[in-house]
Amino acid sequence: MLRKYTIAIIMFLCLQASAQDTCKVGIFITDIYDLNLADKSFAAQFWLWGLYKNDSIKILENMELTGAKDHEYSLSTTERRGKYNYATQKGKATFKKDWNITNFPFDRQKLAITIESGDAEHNELVYLADTKNSSYDASHIKIEGWKISKFETKAEVKSYTSNYGDPEITGKAQYSSFIATITLERDGWGLFFKLFTGLYVAFAISLLPFFMGPENAERFGVLVGALFAAVANKYVVDSILPETNDYTLVDKIHVLAFVYVLISLIMTVLAYRLFAIGKNNLAKKIDWWAFWVTFISFFSINVYLIVKVFIS
User: Fold this and answer.
1) pTM, full prediction
2) pLDDT tens-digit map of 174-199
3) Which domain holds residue 137?
4) Domain count of the chain?
5) What is the three-class DSSP state of 123?
């Protein structure tokens, strides 16, 4: 009895497999541009192709670009190549991208172009990744401030929690998909100094009161000016970044600067009070030690935060 069930299951699986059509899908990316952090998007141009046997499949009409804000196809052709149908078309699209800015401006981003079977389910059409022939135009794709570190393709099955009202689909609807992923690494040092020079100047200004003498009440005005400069720098940097709930490197460095300006203000108040009660020498010593401790610790914490990004 067990043998009969085993044979029946094997026959069912064989029939199920024979009912599936396969299509080898590939991509050649010719351009990547308009990387927009604030708008959470990027744009790309590419060639898509499919290699399949079943003449009844309209493979080009069946390819859906998931995650695209808008797209356009052109130069669609289908030709016979021996026992296979070879279909190809050129496409350009703007894709949604949830940028990971935790380590900005030393971040690494993965840009994915996903092609999904728009009509035929997985039990009818299976995508196979043409990994060997898929690639990108390394001589043409030049993204300022970025370098391409990795390119990979894969095919997988996408499951949905609905059958879209189709009574012939029991359970979850499943569709084949092809995913091409380009990994970008930002060359961020130039951008880092461009964005944080104002902040570091504000911090340097906050150190000046330690040399103005404990009796000088104008120290408070200098520190308030430094604090406003640091806050303004934070607003400028945030304006080019998307909203995020993550505590990013940008946030850490700015908050660190805010805290150290506050520490300088506290030490200034202490020195001023000591001067007021006649302990001028002690006030000057506190200023001297406060300067070196503040400067060295601020520098060290900045180095630690940046190094941590590169080793994570």
Assistant:
1) 0.78
2) 888 999 999 999 988 999 999 999 99
3) 19-186
4) 2
5) coil
